[in-house]
Amino acid sequence: MVIRYLSRPVRRAPVLRATALATGAVVCLAGPAVCAEPAPPKPAPAYSSSLLDRPGTQVRPRPDAPPVPRDLSALSWMVSDARTGEVLAAHNAHRKLPPASTLKSLFALAALPRLNPETRHTVTDTELARVGGGSSLVGVAAGNSYRVSDLWRGVFLSSGNDAVHVLATMNGGWERTVRQMRAKARALGAHDTHVVSPDGYDAPGQVSSAYDLAVFGRAGLADPQFARYCSTARASFPSGNWSYPIQNTNRLLTGADGVARYPGIIGVKNGYTSGAGHTLIAAAHRGARTILVTVMNPQRGGLTVYEEARSLLDWGFAAGGRVSPVGSLLPAKPRKAPDGAAHTAGQAGFVRPGTSDGGSDWPALVLVGVGSAVVVIGCVVIVRRRAATVARRRGAGGEFVR
Known about the structure:
The chain crosses the membrane at residues 362-383. The chain is an alpha+beta fold. It contains 11 helices and 16 strands.
């Protein structure tokens, strides 16, 4: 990564700097004549994601590494660094299992960008007719009008399948949403996931994996809207002329039902069905690190999923710099440097999400560089214009179912 200036640095261009660092792009403010040649492609990482294809627990400890928790009963789990995408440890990472409502994270990734949060919609009986028996509900009622943002809070906090059905209808329909979710999973490199029911309701053939859920969680934390919703602990949900309080069903976020709130918790999404058992995507921030864990179907039942996630989060923070990665959540990189500025390295920066309704005030992770060349090009144009302005002024060049 090379940035050249003809004179004093142009200030107030953090977006360009962060995006350039994330993408590995060469940015020159003075035109192509004095730009350096594009940087050569980076060597392949020193770890192999093929380790994640192996059954059992995979970890590469250094001499001073803490031991991986031994009392875990989950059929599958994974610990990763959300900033770098490095997988620190995993157990049956690619085992295909029912995801329950953690699949709503993929639903949000597919549908959030397509729906304006301020749009109001009046719900019909038809939109609620296909909600499965025993589903968790936020209380969406036919005939009532809701903002899209209200419905998303119903999805993230109450895991409301009724809210999912209405949003899917607004998104073009159930089948179209399924296709979008499948396409999004493929685009993210989540190849273990097969979507049948966007709300996570048990359905034949519907599966995901601890690896894929981590990919969805990391991608979701890169979206400010997603990060804001998933970190909200409590909110009000409208019902005609009045509203009532709702609370996030993720106990690590709320500290409910005897589960202590995890320090630095961000979210992301929990789930439960009789077929899937308990599932969880959880992320927490401490110091300069964000650890992301996924837990699928602990065999001891009850609220064990939260305590096993707690153990894995604790281990992830303690293991920083003491283990070598066993894989990566990032898609495979091209062997050659791409033309232009479309290369993504997947580095990250932190921003605080918008004010949530009584939710977490911890910084949500926004992955700078999970974008396209258009972002970089737009930044270059903006900064060139700023540079020109500075030059004129100074005279120099210049993101029951739970």
